[in-house]
Each structure stands twice: as structure tokens, then as C-alpha cells.
Amino acid sequence: MLESLEKMLAQGIDNPMLRLGLGKGYLDADQPGRAAEHLRRCVELNPRYSAAWKLLGKALQAAGDVEGARQAWEQGIATAAAQGDKQAEREMSVFLKRLGRLTPD
Length: 105
Prior knowledge:
This protein is mainly alpha-helical. It has one domain: Serine Threonine Protein Phosphatase 5, Tetratricopeptide repeat (Alpha Horseshoe). The chain is about 80% helix and about 0% strand.
């Protein structure tokens, strides 16, 4: 799947759904750095995409960027709240709480 998505990107197709698919694919393939690159581009293309913010936070956390994950989830919570996406808002709030327990202030 990643190969076909990368081919689409190489052909000049670039949109939030494609970037989300690439980000999720690379995250599932345990390549969080590559996932974060695509997910960052996804939220640049559509900053109101709360699912992308959620995955970006996961990718950044997996890549060891705790502060980046925190910022992504905070932005994602604000985005989800503005759109009435209560489920995404709750999930990212839980991720933030867990992150707070994992890292000292």
C-alpha cells in the first residue's frame, strides 16, 4: 500500500487524505519519522483535520519528540473542539494526560 501511495505522490498528487494514508502507513510500519513528515504536511494542507493531529502526535511521540507530540495534541484538541469532534478531543486529552505521566515537568 505504501508503495502505491508514494507513486501517487511522485506523480504530483498531493492532498490531505493521501498524506494521512502515508503517515498512518509509515506509523504502522514503525517508521515514525517518515510518518511525522507526511502528517505535518497533511495538517498544513488541512489544519482542521483532527485525525491527522492525533496521528501526528503519536508519530512524534514514537520518534522521541515529546514536546512536539504535546503541541500536536494540544492543537488537535483545539481543532476537534472547534469542529465538535468530541471523540477525537477525548482521545487526544487522554494521550496528553498519559504523556504528562511519562515525562517529568
